Amino acid sequence: MPRHEGRLTTFFYTTPSTKVRFAVARDEFDTMAENIYDEIEIEDMTFDPVIGIYHYPCPCGDRFEIALDDLRDEEDIAVCPSCSLMIRVIYEVDELPKPEEQKTAEATPAPAAAQVRA
């Protein structure tokens, strides 16, 4: 390790503004980790291809939600809009539906029986 690296690290963590920012970030991470209700495999979730959202039931009666685009961006925390609980989604990015597959599902017409007749 070069001699100046230790001084730079010490300076970074000992200046008042960076100490505060580091403490706030650490506290936010600790709070988020406390609210992780469970870790769920993506295969156990329900995918809505029309809106591109994965769902999973929440104990409060609502459901955890996470967008497909968020998963593609490697965000793995699904939140419940009604309570403070969150789940961590276990998945592989390369196993997510491809954008073409999602567009195909959206473009599929409704069954003839469900269409309104004029």
Protein topology:
Blueprint (H helix, E strand, L loop, with lengths): L2 H12 L1 H19 L1 E6 L4 E3 L4 E5 L5 E5 H5 L4 E3 L6 E5 L8 H9 L11
Parallel strand pairs: 1-6
Antiparallel strand pairs: 2-3, 3-4, 5-6
Structure report:
Helix content is 38%, strand content 23%. It is of the alpha+beta class and 118 residues long. The chain has two domains: 34 residues; 72 residues, DPH Zinc finger (Microbial ribonuclease fold, Roll), CATH 3.10.660. The strands form two sheets. The protein has a three-stranded mixed β-sheet. A three-stranded antiparallel β-sheet has the order 2-3-4. About 8% of the residues have low confidence.
What structural class do the secondary elements suggest?
alpha+beta
Number of domains: 2
Strand content: 15-25%
State the strand order across the main sheet. 1-6-5
State the end-to-end CA separation. Answer: 77 Å
Cofactor: Fe(2+)
Domain DPH-type MB: 36-92
Pathway: Protein modification; peptidyl-diphthamide biosynthesis
Region (Disordered): 98-118
The gist of it:
The protein has about 120 residues and is of the alpha+beta class. Helices cover about 40% and strands about 25% of the residues. It has two domains: about 35 residues; about 70 residues, Microbial ribonuclease fold.
Keywords:
3-stranded mixed sheet; alpha+beta; 6 strands; globular; Microbial ribonuclease fold; Diphthamide biosynthesis protein 3
